[in-house]
Amino acid sequence: MLLVEKLQTRRQGRTFEFSLQLQPGEIGLLLGRSGSGKSTLLELLAGFLPASSGVLSADGQNIAHLPPAQRPFTMLFQQNNLFEHLTVYQNIALGLRPDLKLSLQEQQTLQLAAERLQIADLLTRRPGSLSGGQQQRVALARCLVRRKPYLLLDEPFSALDPALRQEMMQEVRQLATEQHIGVLLVSHQPQEAKDQADWLGFIDDGQLKFTAPVSTLQQPPTAEFAAYLGMSSLG
């Protein structure tokens, strides 16, 4: 389990504070206005921002002092950060070894991830020849081969059309369930919470105001969240 208790950081003169729990296999969806602190939370967890106080532990182990590479997170951004001069195979392989010299077992791991995400027939191509959905599958495969227990998604599918976005969310749901991966997803799409997430959190003014199971959110629990949604319910 990922445990975050009053984890604080300062950025551009503002104080941010977050508390949450994430179980393996769960998807938590984080909503909030631009600049509210959603990406700051993910960067704080991943170790890209230093924490000034609070608790950050994974499976009972304190990880707040660990550098990013040693933390149990993989992070996927809206910009998929694929290298245009490398093949799909090589881009995924970077998740295993920066020198691209994979062992036989690592090659098999890569192949399985590619097959799982239906891109096994694209391994010799370069990112520039792929559609947006295919590129995001490649980026997600690179995350999966790292086999970290927690996946941080910072609006990775927002540039895709609604049908592709829904398809990618279904892939994430299956991966979370089958591989017991805990997922934190930043999004501007409340419907994704109703369709795929286990719980929803609302971030406002640098704080995680509440988390609640999606099944209980028939009505917005706060006036601020209702104003954000611009509606009376998630339905």
Fold blueprint:
Layout: E1 2-11, E2 14-22, E3 27-31, H1 38-46, E4 53-58, E5 61-62, E6 73-77, H2 88-93, H3 104-116, H4 132-145, E7 150-154, H5 162-179, E8 182-186, H6 190-195, E9 199-204, E10 207-213, H7 223-229
Parallel strand pairs: 3-8, 3-9, 6-7, 7-8
Antiparallel strand pairs: 1-2, 1-4, 4-5, 9-10
CATH class of the largest domain: Alpha Beta
Q: With helices defined by DSSP (H or I, 4 residues minimum), what is the helix count?
A: 7
Largest sheet: 6 strands, mixed
- The strand count comes to 10
The span between the termini is: 30 Å
Characterize the structure shown.
- With 235 residues, this protein is an alpha/beta fold.
- The protein has two domains: 1-72 and 154-235, P-loop containing nucleotide triphosphate hydrolases (Rossmann fold), CATH 3.40.50.300; 80-147.
- 31% of the residues lie in helices and 26% in strands.
- The protein has seven helices and ten strands.
- The chain has a six-stranded mixed sheet with strand order 6-7-8-3-9-10, with helices on both faces. A four-stranded antiparallel sheet has the order 2-1-4-5, covered by helices on one side.
- A hairpin with a 2-residue loop joins β9 (199-204) and β10 (207-213).
- α3 crosses α4.
- The radius of gyration is 18 Å and the shape is globular.
- The chain starts with a strand and ends in a 6-residue tail after the last helix.
- The mean pLDDT is 91.
